[in-house]
Write a sequence for this structure.
DNA sequence: TTGACGCGTAAGCATCCTCTTACCTATTAT
DNA sequence: ATAATAGGTAAGAGGATGCTTACGCGTCAA
């Protein structure tokens, strides 16, 4: 788990941009040349090229040239490190452990500023 | 799926920093006051406060004051949007179809910029 | 009360990001 | 060959990030 944290930070970085997430989502439909990808955005084609370069460096996409077109396709396995990192939190909201934890926290938290135990109280609204 | 993309970009943003991911990982152990969190880092305590503010704004942590200490605790459910976004890619590397696709892709194109072939045209039109 | 402690915020600074326009190469079409 | 197309790269502007130090406020201890 401590190992998962600093594993391939370029992937977390690449995915932190909503434009790049949209590109990945587009590529689910299949490999596409740059012009077609750029067609879905407002920004200039060079900007798209730059995003693609970041995705490429992270290994999230790969490139194959076809004549003058450069087709980019998804490398979904490269999302693995993110999924793995998320995975070690999942039990906290999915399973009994989390329900118990939440339940106990609600039960024991009533007066603020009492002791070292952590509790969740009034900030549970969302 | 198009909806999942732009959903809560602050969460993707918050998690794109390795310092902030480390903070979240620390908080798995339980809520902690700022000073204790900062003890695990080289950077100054104000820098930690600033990271915590970003995590707080994203809803990934919550704060509760106990005397002069501010305890932060994890809100793991807030990682849900990331998990959900990842989830719609999982079948691409989890299931048989993806194994086949990867296998075929490796056979014909692997390193970026090396291959002239393009087969995504017929590969993914499931 | 005075002082130490825990923490947040302000201000400043250096760096990085993300666009843009301009320009270049490679490929295809006429 | 010439022109048009697809796309990469360079350079620069503007804004966002991520630190730092300085300082202020509330809380606890003597």
């Amino acid at each position: 788990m401590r190992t998962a944290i600093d594993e391939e930070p370029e992937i977390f970085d690449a995915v932190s941009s909503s434009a790049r997430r949209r590109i990945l989502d587009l590529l689910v439909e299949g490999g596409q040349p740059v012009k077609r990808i750029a067609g879905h955005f407002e920004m200039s084609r060079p900007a798209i090229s730059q995003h693609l370069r970041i995705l490429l460096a992270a290994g999230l996409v790969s490139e194959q040239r076809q004549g003058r077109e450069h087709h980019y396709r998804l490398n979904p396995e490269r999302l693995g490190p993110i999924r793995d990192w998320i995975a070690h939190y999942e039990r906290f909201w999915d399973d009994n452990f989390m329900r118990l934890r939440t339940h106990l926290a609600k039960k024991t938290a009533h007066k603020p500023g009492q002791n070292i135990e952590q509790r969740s109280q009034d900030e549970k609204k969302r």
